[in-house]
Write a structure and sequence with these properties.
Chain A: This is Binding-protein-dependent transport system inner membrane protein. The complex is a heterodimer. Chain A is mainly α. Chain A is built from 13 helices and 2 strands. In chain A, strand 1 and strand 2 form a beta hairpin. The two termini of chain A are 32 Å apart. The mean pLDDT of chain A is 90. By secondary structure, chain B is of the alpha/beta class. Chain B has 14 helices and 12 strands. In chain B, the strands form 2 sheets. In chain B, strands 1, 2, 3, 4, 5, 8, 9, 10, 11 and 12 form a 10-stranded mixed beta sheet that branches. In chain B, strands 6-7 form a two-stranded parallel sheet. In chain B, strand 1, helix 2 and strand 2 form a beta-alpha-beta unit. The chains are: A mainly alpha, B alpha/beta. Chains A and B meet through helix 3 and helix 12 of A and helix 3, strand 7 and helix 14 of B.
Chain lengths: 273, 338
């Protein structure tokens, strides 16, 4: 495409410099704080972080919720994507638009909608008390369940979009052929759909897991201080405790978890190929 | 010659703004109610001093970090902060003692505002009371101990320990348990009841929302937030617990070596004046530390106002908070937040 490598590099250089100066350098400086204690390079920040029972709980809770949200989004996403790709072109556009629509609304507004649903005077509690299942509203907000639902609703569209893109590449007659030859639906999914949509699952899984792990607004509003996640803990360390070493440690852990999730998913996809 | 005159004229033109810019006072303040402060304090002061006022806002941690980071060459001349933050800066040698003879309004202050952290390192400009706001149609709150009682189980919110109201709540709960000097048993008691507490709020605005959504029916809060509850359609009441109200104070400090002390004194004195304190009180922003300020009954009802109220506040010493906070937070994180 280019007359020589130098021309290509010249065109890429402005973007590279922009990214380096405005992203890598400040983030690098921030993260380096996590390796410095009293002016010397050390891993003490990480040792101290994991020595705290609260920090370990927060780490495991974040990991658990990230995995649960990504796994649930994958299950729901496959069903939704399969339906969408089999719709007529007109309906497909409309339904796909409905899936994408929430992404155009601020995460803050989407999260507050859950308060209307899960609050003491919300729809769910009105139904519970109205049906006589309980004589008083049940505590739904400020629980892990609320955070899980909020994160799932926030990131599910990303999984569906990734899987729809992947499923559209499956030849139209492969699934009917397998069915005609006697394959059950579970076999069709495991032996045809899953292998042929691995790339979409890797991309969707990474986006959802990373998003759930690094979301701040949703855990802060729906979980509050009783359901601390790594991101809300990071905010506390910076804005309440002025503890930039711990904040750097948490930031590094979040980055490592995101990269690890991506590598793991890619590895799984490669092994099964 | 002509060109020399032109250069001289240009030089004079450039020197004018430079001189005006030299008379600049940089203050660091809480970020709330800045429109009201501008009207009642900043704009009138700029007219009086003929100087430029640079206002920097942010939360306490950000502002403290900035003062500390620029210790060698201060960029902030004067700051409005909490007593414990003022003491923290004092211990680091970052604030200068206040020569009270330069403050014409000093004698008008309540006694507790004159030297709140010792050695005249700070001067109080506002008080706040902390008590319990509750839904009067659903419950009656007579004591701080009611917050952990059966009647409010599952319907109460407490301030997070890291907030300003957190230690004050511990102090008042401690009074009900006979534990006024050691908060460890109080934190353990809260931990035992943690499942009965809806959430631990960080900001008063968060609590206003929680109570208006009817997620919570009682919680400790600063009096400065009371107007937000009074304007609600729900029947909220301000408790007068048998143990009394907790209270605190925000103070003004001058940074060490700012080189702008005279202007800082002028601004500090103006802020403490009866005129400015009265205006800010009428706007329901700050409760006056100047005892000569008089306000209407309606305004007084929204503030921590008057000697009777101020002299009976249970104020936690700044040194106590500063020296013990780290231990409290560690226990809180391990037992309460989990």
């Amino acid at each position: 495409m280019f007359r020589n490598t130098r021309e290509g590099l010249a065109l890429a250089l402005p973007a590279a410099i922009f990214a380096m100066l405005l992203f890598l350098v400040p983030v690098g400086i921030l993260l380096s704080e996590a390796f410095r204690t009293d002016g010397s390079w050390t891993l003490q920040g990480y040792i101290d972080f994991f020595a705290s029972p609260l920090n370990r709980t927060v780490f495991l809770r974040s990991l658990k919720l990230g995995v649960l949200v990504a796994a649930t989004a994958a299950v729901i996403g496959y069903a939704a994507a399969f339906c969408i790709v089999n719709l007529s072109p007109g309906s497909k556009g409309r339904v796909f638009g409905l899936v994408v629509l929430p992404l155009m609304i601020s995460p803050v507004a989407r999260t507050y909608a859950w308060i209307v649903i899960l609050g003491r005077t919300g729809i769910v509690n009105m139904a519970i008390t109205g049906l006589g299942l309980s004589d008083r509203p049940i505590r739904l907000l400020f629980t892990e369940t609320a955070v899980f639902l909020g994160l799932l609703q926030l990131f599910l569209p990303l999984m569906i979009i990734s899987l729809v893109s992947a499923m559209e590449n499956i030849p139209r007659d492969v699934i009917p052929a397998a069915r005609v030859l006697g394959a059950s639906w579970p076999s069709v999914f495991l032996k045809i759909i899953l292998p042929l949509t691995r790339e979409g699952l890797v991309i969707g899984g990474t986006l959802v897991f990373t998003g759930a792990l690094t979301a701040y607004i949703t855990p802060a509003i729906l979980g509050g201080s009783k359901v601390l996640m790594l991101e809300t803990l990071l905010y506390q360390k910076v804005n309440v405790s002025n503890d930039f070493v711990s904040a750097g440690v948490i930031a590094m852990i979040l980055i490592l978890m995101s990269f690890s999730a991506n590598l793991l998913l890619k590895r799984i996809a490669t092994v099964r190929r | 010659m002509k060109s020399s005159l032109s250069l001289l004229a240009l030089g004079c033109a450039m020197a004018g703004p430079a001189l005006a810019q030299d008379k600049t006072l940089t203050i660091s303040v809480y970020s709330f109610a800045q429109d009201e402060y501008k009207e009642a304090l900043y704009d009138p002061f700029e007219e009086i001093c003929g100087c430029e006022l640079v206002v920097e806002t942010g939360n306490s941690v950000e502002r403290m970090a900035k003062i500390e980071a620029n210790a060698a060459n201060p960029v902030i001349d004067l700051a409005a902060i909490s007593t414990q933050d003022a003491l923290s800066l004092t211990r680091k040698g970052l604030v200068a003692p206040i020569d009270t003879s330069k403050l014409s309004n000093f004698d008008k202050l309540y006694d507790t505002a004159k030297d709140p952290i010792g050695d005249h390192m700070a001067v109080g400009y506002t008080y706040y009371a902390t008590s319990i706001v509750y839904r009067s149609d659903l419950v009656s709150v007579e004591s701080w101990g009611d917050l952990l009682g059966e009647e409010l189980a599952g319907e109460v919110s407490l301030p997070n320990l890291t907030s300003t109201q957190g230690p004050l709540t511990l102090m008042m709960l401690g009074k009900t348990m006979g534990e006024e000097s050691d908060f460890a048993p109080v934190i353990s008691q809260i931990a035992e009841k943690a499942d009965d507490i809806v959430t631990f709020y960080a900001r008063s605005s968060e609590l206003v929302q929680l109570m208006n959504q009817q997620e919570v029916i009682a919680a400790p809060v600063g009096r400065f937030a009371w107007s937000s509850f009074r304007n609600s359609s729900l029947p909220f009441a301000w408790a007068e617990p048998e143990e009394g109200q907790a209270g605190g104070m925000n103070v003004l400090v001058m940074t060490e070596g700012s080189g702008n002390e005279e202007l800082a004194y002028q601004f500090m004195d103006y802020w403490l004046s009866t005129e400015v304190q009265g205006k800010i009180a009428d706007m329901l922003v700050d409760s006056p530390a100047n005892k000569e300020v008089t306000v209407s009954d309606e305004v007084a009802d929204n503030l921590t106002y008057g000697a009777d109220v101020i002299n009976t506040l249970n104020i936690l010493p700044a040194a106590e908070i500063l020296d013990k906070r780290e231990g409290w937070v560690e226990q809180w994180n391990n037992e309460v937040i989990r």
